[in-house]
Write a structure and sequence with these properties.
The complex is a heterodimer of chains A (503) and B (267). Helix content of chain A is 17%, strand content 40%. Chain A is an alpha+beta fold. Chain A folds into 2 domains: 43 residues; 416 residues, Beta Barrel (Porin). In chain A, a hairpin with a 2-residue loop joins strand 9 and strand 10. Chain A is globular and about 80 Å long. The two termini of chain A are 58 Å apart. By secondary structure, chain B is mainly β. Chain B has 5 helices and 13 strands. Chain B has a 13-stranded antiparallel beta sheet with strand order 6-5-4-3-2-1-13-12-11-10-9-8-7. The chains are: A alpha+beta (503), B mainly beta (267). At the A-B interface, helix 2, strand 1, strand 6, strand 7 and strand 10 of A face strand 1, strand 2, strand 5, strand 6 and strand 7 of B.
Chain lengths: 503, 267
Amino acid sequence: MRDAQKEKKPPRHKDTKGRHLRAVRAVLFLVPWCLAVSISSLACADENSDLNLIPGAVGQEPAKPAPDQTQPGAPAAPAPTATAAPTGKTYIEDAFTVESLRSPLAVPLPPSTAPALEIQNRSSLDFTHKWSFDGTLDFSFSDRANLYEENDIAIPSHQDFRNDFREGFVTWEPEAQTYLEAGRINVRHGTALGYNPTDFFKTRTLVDQSSEDPSVIREDRLGVAMVQGQRIFENGSATLAVAPRLASPTAIPTSGPPPSVDPGFGRTNGTNRVLLSGSTELADGVSPEFLAYHDDDGSRFGASVSRTIGQAIVAYGEWAGGEQGSLTSRAIQFGHQTDALPAIVVDPDPRKSFTNDAAVGASWTDGADEITLNAEYHYHQSGFGAADWRNWFAAGRAGKPLVDSLLWYTRAYAQDQQEPMSRQEIFLRADWQDAFIDKLEISAIAFVNLYDGSTLTQLSVSYNLSDDWTVSALGGASVGASRSERGSVPEQANAIAQLVRYF
Amino acid sequence: MNKLATATLALGLALAPSLTAPIAAAWAADTLTAQDMIAATDKIRNPGQPFRLTSTLIEYVDGKPRDRSVVVVYAKEDTASGQFNNLVNFTEPARDQGKMVLFHGTKLWFYDPASKASVPISPQQRLIGQASDGDVLTVNWSRDYKASLLGDDKLQDADRKDRDCWHLDMVASNDEAVYSRIELWVEKGTYNPIKGKFYSDSGRVLKIAYYRKYEQILGGLRPTQNIIIDAVDSKLVTTVDTSDFRFVDIPDSWFQRDFLPRLKIEQ
């Protein structure tokens, strides 16, 4: 465009006045042209000044060998399976925890389950690896070994060590995108963050955690021994998982999993279970998943879906429903099954009814400030409503140890099953990367009971010292009135310092 | 500085425009529009077959290298949408090893092998560390941007050599565009990208990119190093070196969330 301007000439005139006018016109024309050229030169000079921002170290690297080995039209390499590299992650972690306990409690804890822990240090070796053999056979292994020092445990003793055997399974791919697997596998479903009704294999998989953040808790849970087959199609997949009963169900630990090297099949494989799931890819970015689940207690069905809205929002939701007893009823039955509750404790209402569980929410990301917010609504129909909570506190006022045991057992059962205690709650999460300084991440979560407003909250700050080292600090609290869900638990607040070294 | 933004530029820019002489001659007609130029760069981005590459990202702070990360990218053009589908696998640093991101149209999924969870994410959501998924998402500029020719500029490339360039202005034409605006300087004759400036919705310059180390790759002359300057915090500079280019057979079935745990990275 500027070149085109240069080629234009003013019209020629013969008279003196005309010459003056032409001169004036020429000046008037040349002024903007000169200005344009000057601005262009200045602009380019300004553009070139960006080069001064490039570090001197850039460009001093040794030349790379010529990388082009393939020309267009050449036959493509087969799908990469034959020489897949071993993958995995190994790290050591040390977590020092100080916990303050609430006292007195609205409903006293049975003496045998009263937590004594106030100070703990946990050192863990975490190992997850996958090896591939001949392209069609893989072996996956995941394990964590924990060493504990606590203020109420002798050192050394058999309670100082616990091994969490999370996964160990073989995968065979007899043909492309068809997989057969056998072993202990961590199968997870669901799109929500704080509660996953469709994550049917989540029950009884928790090991003790140094965080209340669900996104962290998910990273350390036991798999389930199963046989699984999966076929991935062009626009979807179908999966069938069969998990047999391998051991009698073990009782719910009263204060965290028992220290041992027990693989815990009595927790993960105490009942026969089958899960059929399928997903499909629809237009407009919608990817629903459908599930059908059956165990010795009955059948449940589920579905989940998510959709991206614009550049910053993802909406998601999941639902599960089926015949099920109330939370109290299921807890009592399980207590009888594992001899944790005496026969004198009778289920007041063993009837089953169709119950719904749901989690719906959305995430929003501020691309400029690197902040992501999640807000979810959780509905757990068989959980406690306002009347159930009133009854729970009223029963605990009687001062009968057996009743107190049952009341607290119900809550332990809900935690063991990884299901909400209350029928309705809100979950909020905020994550800020590069907060204030580079590589500093701040996260906050809150579970809010919609009946009494009590809240479980946690703030964590994590800083990557280098590619290999991460240091974190977490602080959590259960906040609420003494006769509220979160204000009635013994754990009032905790603080954790954590150091991780990756290899 | 957004490192994997750099990876966009690794994928989108490493495969960015560098027309061979015959193509350049064919396009050198006066009728060539700015949109034609961008369309030409799109053709260069797509080598015609599905491919993979490795991107090594090094972040410099105050001129000194601080962090290094490596990703392997599998890319295949969706013939229906004209957009690229991508699978991004993190191989370094160790804390992020095995994490993956799927870009399939408007569907984005992040998979973490530690949690076995595939989580839907938005294009603006950061992945891990400095990585931004949205930067990798859009590689077909002519589909997402309306281009116009601002003029001719003589510009220095990253090696401080003078280049005669076309100065293009690219404005987002749909919601899937990662940036609201891009300024691009393309060398006349070769169509090599020399420099780019990337803008936010508010009109702020987010990053400045230089393209260098042109080498013969997958049948075309393409830049193998991108230098990304953080325009907000100019002491942060990231280089993206692309290597290990290969044509690979990528089935369409790879671009869905259930395949994420199944991908194996060949050595």
